[in-house]
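Illustration: adenine deaminase.
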Amino acid sequence: MVKGFSHYWKRKEIRQQLDVIKGNRPPTKVITNAKWLNSVRKSWMEGNIWISHDRIVYVGKDMPINMTGTEVIDAADSYVVPGYIEHHSHPFLLYHPLTLAQYASERGTTTLINDNLMLLLYLNKKKALTLLDDLQKTPTTMLWWARYDCQTELINEADVLSYSNMKAWLDHPYVVQGGELTDWPSVLQGDDSMLHWMLETKDVRKPIEGHLPGAGEKTLTKMALLGVDGDHESMSGEEVLRRLDVGMTASIRYSSIRPDLSRIINELHELGLHDYDRLLMTTDGSSPEFLENGMMDHLIKLAMEQGVPFIDAVGMCTYNVARHYHMDDVVGMIAPGRLANINFLSSLSNPLPDHVLAKGEWVRKNGIPCFPDIQFPWEKYGFEPLNLDWDLTEKDFHFSIPAGLDMVNEVILKPYRIEHDLTVERLSDDSDELYFMLIDRAGEWTVSTAIKGFGKNIEGLASSYSNTGDIILIGKSKKGLMSAFQELKKQKGGIILVDQDGPVTQIPLTLSGGLSSAPMETLINQERKLKEALKQRGYKFNDPIYSLLFFSSTHLPYVRVTQKGIFDVKQKKVLFPSIMR
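Result:
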């Protein structure tokens, strides 16, 4: 039988927790004079909260008989609410999972439900699942998805999504959902392999998260029949209602790509919806700079500004989430048996806590972040500096594909017919056309074309940050491409922008070329500098990090640059194949 997340404490630990109630053992912490949120009754209660290590063991009027060595916390001046939950986290947006966990929990978001895509792509099964166990030993509650598709065209996709891999992920107790289901058209077109894994997900009582931008009533109905339980892709209040009407849970997004939350909530109120029990909120894997104002604390504040009552706004990222994932017996509320993820607020107008307990451990106290300094052994899992032990030559800068990429926005690419001569050393400074290359991180193949809309005067940009970890080169001149690549190689991974005099700005990504070991505050400054430098050179959108990430992502229209070549998403075919070097 598959053990779910609820099977969290061993028999010995449960017996010890029972001993606290009996008075045979002292609690580790007692919160006295607490005015705490009863999430079930949607009301405030007063009393005391006993904690044994990482678990709440009692909530009520009584005090423990045995308090030898117990830490007593007087909460008379606080409102006590459950730790917030980010249910749709992509913990690989330059930051790594532990960086995000620290930043989030120090601001009250003590549970993250994380995308597993990068772990699928970077690690073998044994290392990936061991990583899940080791990350769970930190104060933040780290839970995960199980992807059904890789969101791009991979050369080795059959190995990545093998039966043994998928089964192991879905059965893992820290994996609490299937999805997100980005390749849902394949299921509708008869992909029984993916449908099999969706049914397996339902068999182990884990919800399925959709990815259904722009879906109409018929599509949503079909997705409901396939077992999809929720979706985060609503772009209007009307689209939220469509999801609710087919029985789904709807998540409202406030992200660096889609900062829609305030507008959507306002539209929902105009449409007459004032019941928030099937609504969630998410930052949807925002890039570092966008998180500067906070995580779920910031979203709660935005919801309240649009007229959502405080208790309902908190419920949208606590109790509602826990019920949706069938784990309200472990997280999402203040009650016996739940993890001691607790936020202490000074007022109901400010959701940023003064104090935060995560698994019973202080991660913020008196307004000061105090997450423990964890020296996590990333190299144990193969996350080491990127060593590019190969070189580019002049022969690699051969551009013969007649179709280029035209950027509609940060992430949408349309094809266009290339009319300029790409055999020249440098493209015209008067156009916004740049050379574009995707190169295998092992140097075995390349895709070479042109791109419009990414910028105008970018001499050279190199990035090992991409959906698949392969190398992206963009620039006005072939010399600029080579210069950027050489700097990337010297830096051992990351994103680097060069001009004719050398490097302009860079973001070192020391973990496999895709993740930074720097704290979030450092990453925010690094990203801001890159964004400013790119905008000075003609980048006209707001999120270059997502542009780099999604060049290969086939869940988006219309064309993508993948390991197999330039790929037509709608027709599901390679238009121009990658070239072996």
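Reading the tokens back as a structure: The CA atoms of residues 387 and 492 lie 6 Å apart.
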